[in-house]
Amino acid sequence: MSRFLNENLKGLKEYTPGEQPQDKKYIKLNTNESPYPPSKEVVEAVNENEVKDLRLYCDPECSKLKSALAKLYNVKTENVFLSNGSDDILNFSFLAFGQNGVAFADITYGFYSVFADLYSLEKEIIPLNDDFTLNKQAFMNKNKLTVIANPNAPTGITLSLNEIEKIVESNKQNVVLIDEAYVDFGGESAISLTEKYDNLLCVGTFSKSRSMAGARLGFAIANKEIIADLEKIKYSTNPYNINRLTQVAGLAAVKSNNYFMENCKKIIKTREYTAKTLKELNFEVLDSKSNFLFAKHKSLGGKEFYLSLKEKGVLVRHFETERIKDFVRITIGSFEEMQVFLDKTKEILGE
Ligand code: PMP
Q1: pLDDT for residue 174 is more than 80
Q2: Which 8-state DSSP code applies to residue 198?
Q3: Same domain, yes or no, for 107 and 134?
Q4: What is the pLDDT of residues 109-162, one digit of tens each?
């Protein structure tokens, strides 16, 4: 830390991203990436001509991509916001809507707490129930920015659309942000409610179900006033925050949406197989509707399991947080990758 850093930032504890090792090849089941490449349409869209056009600034409005997404989700372009990954949208939302504080679960996406601290927002941290489900009642009538990942991370547990609607309905005085990063793996999106509720902000990403984590593309769907607020922040920080190549790739991805949704079905099938096998091996596995499983062994500790797997070339994610330290989060890879993961797990357990 230099002596020049703003006093307000000196105590900030930054987010720790999952490992992205560059030295050795692992079976990478630690950052919820897709095992499948983007569609061939995406690969073809990022062509030589587009690369040559990198000399030009990109379209700050992302008009083609915005229209395509609006069509896909059956909303108007004025209801769509695009940014550099959904982390960027979360960042903007905390800045824009957090002035009365922010409420979120104790076990959820770790970045919420970091953004709250970045902007010195008051945090109300609501414990999940003992079974890791969300305490819905505690999310009612908050009068402050209310943030829910649905499905939640790292648990994978979902709320139904009906449950989300009740929470949104009871929070008319504030924005309810539903982070739908994993919704395509079996959850119910709340996008259809954005027409009815002007306080609902749905945030999505191309990083998981659309295999484009490295392209950095996130989107939000909400009432046009909320979208205008987010645009105000984007235009006050970095209007060109989605580069040309990502814009063409994103457009091609929307046009080939079926390919990605088929991949999600494969991932769901592999998830169910993996969960069943882990249960047979004495793991407690939470009911996940995402592209990962959150699992805890009856006797093997979370850290020990993570380290033993790493030694055998398989990376999963372990969190030191007290309440979940016995768990690991396992991203669902290809069927073959999960078979290797399960074989290594059996070796570790001595089975
Ligand atoms: N929300 C949740 C719940 C996540 O797990 C992630 C991925 N780390 C993100 C948002 C951010 O994803 P991205 O910035 O790649 O869109």
Answers
A1: yes
A2: T
A3: yes
A4: 999 999 999 999 999 999 999 999 999 999 999 999 999 999 999 999 999 999
Model pLDDT for residues 323-335, shown as the tens digit of each residue: 999 999 999 999 9
Tell which of 194, 226, 256 closes a domain.
256
Residue 320 falls inside a structural domain: yes
* Candidate from 34, 84, 86 with most ligand 1 atoms within 8 A of CB, to mutate: 86
Instruction: State whether 145 and 77 are in the same domain.
Output: yes
CB within 6 Å of ligand 1 — which residues? 85-87, 109, 149, 153, 179, 181, 205, 207, 213, 218
Q: Kindly state whether residue 2 falls inside one of the protein's structural domains.
A: no
Cα 37 to ligand 1 centroid, rounded to whole Å = 18
Domain boundary among 256, 276, 292: 256
DSSP state at residue 295: E
The count of structural domains within the chain is: 2
Do 253 and 261 contact (CB within 8 A), yes or no? Answer: no
pTM greater than 0.85 (yes/no): yes
User: Using CA atoms, how far apart are residues 131 and 285, in angstroms rounded to an integer?
Assistant: 11
CA angle 322/326/328 to nearest 5° reads 110
Looking at ligand 1, which residue's alpha carbon is closest to its atom 2? 181
